[in-house]
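Contributing new complexes? Match this layout with adenosine-5'-diphosphate.
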Amino acid sequence: MIKKIGVLTSGGDAPGMNAAIRAVVRTALSKGMEVYGIRRGYVGLISGDIIQMDARSVSDIIHRGGTMLYTARCPEFRTDEGLDKAKAKCEELGLEGIVVIGGDGSFRGAADLSARGILCVGLPGTIDNDIACTEYTIGYDTAMNTAMELADKLRDTSQSHDRCTVIEVMGRNAGYIAVNTGVASGAIEVITKEMPYDLDSLAKKMLEAKKTGKQNFVVVVAEGIGHADEIAKVLQEKTHIEARATVLGHVQRGGSPTLRDRVVASEMGYYAVELLEQGIGNRVVGMKDNKIVDFDIQEALAMKKPYDERLHQIAEEIGF
Ligand code: ADP
Ligand code: F6P
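Output block (do not edit by hand):
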């Protein structure tokens, strides 16, 4: 029977991480375990910045963005020395298992620590939804809704000036936020790395639409493509429609999590503790067909995630 576990957040923060921490802490307590919060991800695990949590430690956080445990990137954790220090710290405190909330990088670290005998369970926490083993990652829904709301604001001013607005959304190398935001904000075009694009045909499409009375032209560009400014410049040159570029940036990472993020985070946090309770580690929790499931970490990391080409096609076909 596992008696003591830790929880940490690692990599980029995501709305809903607090709800996941709360679920882990309260589930562990309800199962009679001691639970410790590890601050700033693997940095805190190595340095011992670790606090015991009780039910009240996670009061009043379910609706807050960010992570109450802070987060960090920790280059030392990629080395044998760093991993050995982390293992020694776990042994010193009697931590038998750790719930790691983060992305692929954090899961690689969790696999390395699991190989050293500390049971680790990963929870997918990133706004990018770019983790292959899961249909959904904690933070994705909130970030997309934020991007959509900001796109709506840009559309207001764009419409008033008969302009084109080129909006760059986050997602690292993945276009999932972009394609959904594009559909939801009525974009004329979505540009992502996963699909080919051609600015000449986009310019033509814009001019055709202008002839029918269209006044605003929303173009959503995924972060991986970059150059929103350059794209706006080229489109303006080709169409003589005034264009502006806006990079939404880190505002997409903040804010109160949506219902979906709070609920999924709570379910996943609960599930992670159930695994640890059974002495199961080296797993990643994910969502498949809307159900919470788990995978071996290495197998999860080797998976490939399909891009929603149909949604992309829908965005293109109805955006005119
Ligand atoms: P994310 O978890 O969001 O993908 P990162 O890729 O920045 O974010 O990874 C977060 C942390 O996980 C890194 O700072 C490092 O401590 C750890 N990590 C990343 N990759 C590895 C790896 N290959 N081996 C061990 N630890 C890793
Ligand atoms: O992974 C989340 C994310 O916000 C990506 O969308 C983005 O590429 C990256 O993190 C930004 O990282 P940083 O916070 O280091 O600027």
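Reviewers usually confirm one structural detail per submission. For this one: The two ends are 60 Å apart (CA to CA).
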